[in-house]
Amino acid sequence: MKFRRKERERAEALLRASGQMDGAHEVPPEPDAASLGAKGGIAYAWDGNSMRASVYAFRSYPDARAVEDDVRGRPDGAQHAVATVNGALLLWATADVDDQPALASLKELLSGFAGRE
After folding, report:
1. For the residues of 97-115, what is the DSSP string, one character each?
2. pLDDT digits 0-9 by tens, 90-115
3. What is the CATH number of the domain that holds 87?
């Protein structure tokens, strides 16, 4: 499934709010949206670091919130993961634990998505 235009615009605005979108390019979301029960998803990877972020659209905030804790615990010990919900959108982002610049960017991405619109 794909994001509706309005959902995509909102997700991209939230991601841009972090100031961390330089060097980002769109990639397929992992896991795929359907496996999480989401209506759709978009994802980005960054040139030069290990950060990867997926944004999923759900029908409601409670639906997105119900998946938040599950995705946060998915990576193995080699990756650090963060997740947050903004409305019916869920951000799940990861970076390698030994990639300090990516971990710092991950923190900014999370903060921007969580509430600085």
Report:
1. TT-HHHHHHHHHHHHHHHH
2. 999 999 999 999 999 999 999 989 87
3. 3.40.1000
Residue 101 sits at φ, ψ, to 5 deg, of: -60, -40
Q: How far is CA 91 from CA 22, 58, 113, in A?
A: 18, 11, 7
pTM, to two decimals: 0.90
Residue 14 structural domain: 5-115
Domain count for the chain: 1
* 20 in Cβ contact with 108 (< 8 Å): yes
31 prior amide bond cis, ω within 30: yes
DSSP character string of 3-47: --HHHHHHHHHHHHTTT--TTEEEE--SS-HHHHT-SEEEEEEET
- CA dihedral defined by 51, 56, 29, 16, rounded to 10 degrees? -40
Largest CA distance in the chain: 36
User: CB neighbours of 99 closer than 8 A, spacing ≥ 6?
Assistant: 49, 50, 51
Reported as a single tens digit per residue, the pLDDT across 15-30 is: 888 888 888 999 999 8
